[in-house]
Amino acid sequence: MSAGHARVATALLAATAVALTGCASSVAAGNAPGISGDVVRIGFITDMSGPYVGIDGPAGAEMVRKAVAEKGGAVGGAPVEVIVADHRNKADVAAAEATEFFDRQGVDVLIGGVNSGSSLAMAAVARERRKPFVAVGAGDSSHTGEQCSPYTVHYAYSTTAWGRIAGRAGGDDASWYFLTADYAFGRQMHDAAARYVTSAGRTVAGAAHHPRGAPDLTPLVQQAHASGAEVIGLASGHDDLARALTAVNTLGLRDSVAVVGMHLFITELDEIGLEHAQGMYVPAGWFWTRDAETRAWSERFFAEFGRMPTSLQAADYSAALQYLNAVEGAGSDDADAVLARLRNTRINDVYTKNGYIRGDGHMVHDMYLLQVKEPGESAEPWDYYRLVETVEGEAAWPTKGESACPLWK
Questions:
Q1: Is 244 exposed, middle or buried (0-12, 13-18, 19+ CB in 10 A)?
Q2: Pairwise CA distance, residues 298 & 90, whole Å
Q3: I need a surface site. Which of 219, 292, 295, 308 has the fewest CB within 10 A?
Q4: CA 158 – CA 135 distance, rounded (Å)
């Protein structure tokens, strides 16, 4: 008997059994859409070959697979498949891959990795297809702002949240100067941090914008120091942040100003080194030394990859696990049913405790202000952070009054 004939025969037998149990059972069965195609498919699209592979990439994909394995490889009696693609940090490639996943691969949920332009392009495709999209690695606050969607969940962090956490650094009376990468990502972090600083009664002494990838930021760091500001906020990420930090050290300013790196992952810190980054403040949504559970989980990651996980890789695992839990709880992979289940369930796993998804699509969870340890403080490999402050729940995220999401009004 062919697989198709077998499915038909199984369906006929099931229908007969339902008919024999009476009308009430028949109605209940008819209201349960079940698993489409008899398979649950998770799509994962991120940078798999470019500059951000260390913070997400293949290890992020493997964490999605770990979540599937934790569920025994199946939910609701249906096997779970994971399909992975490389968006190459191009929005058009990301949109094309998302379209392929939904239209031809039968993907039920899409988890998106780094690069905000690519992530927003995937969100647009998911909205059109009415399929869940979980933005993990991209921070652009538009995901839950003016481009919010009933099908998008912004899971790990946002530029607004990290800006708000970063703005808590430096003391109650400290004045700030911002060095800002001049594109949406940098400007959003700058604006969020500046709003927090001024709302707390502190001052912004000035700001300077620089193009993404500027080769030498020394003149701008000199300008920041000349302003008399006590805190230099680096509203940038990746190589831009590293070059700004190099300028701070080259000019010998480490002991005279506090430096806040608004977008830094542990793998990048490992490349920079504690000697150069010591004392810098960093916002984070997760860190591996947070508690015994995160340590144990991270040590298993280390055994496989030879490095500790980033917050994004932990969030990839969590997003996949929580989606599968929701499918199991809903008894269906229907997008609206699963999203309703997610929105009405508290999220408790190695990534966060008591997290929840609110009306604009933010997954609200605790955030952290960390400080990079001095080399002599580090007790073991990858022991890079000391906890300065835990910012609980809603305090880390934009308020409804600040939100530009039309769905949350």
A1: buried
A2: 30
A3: 292
A4: 10
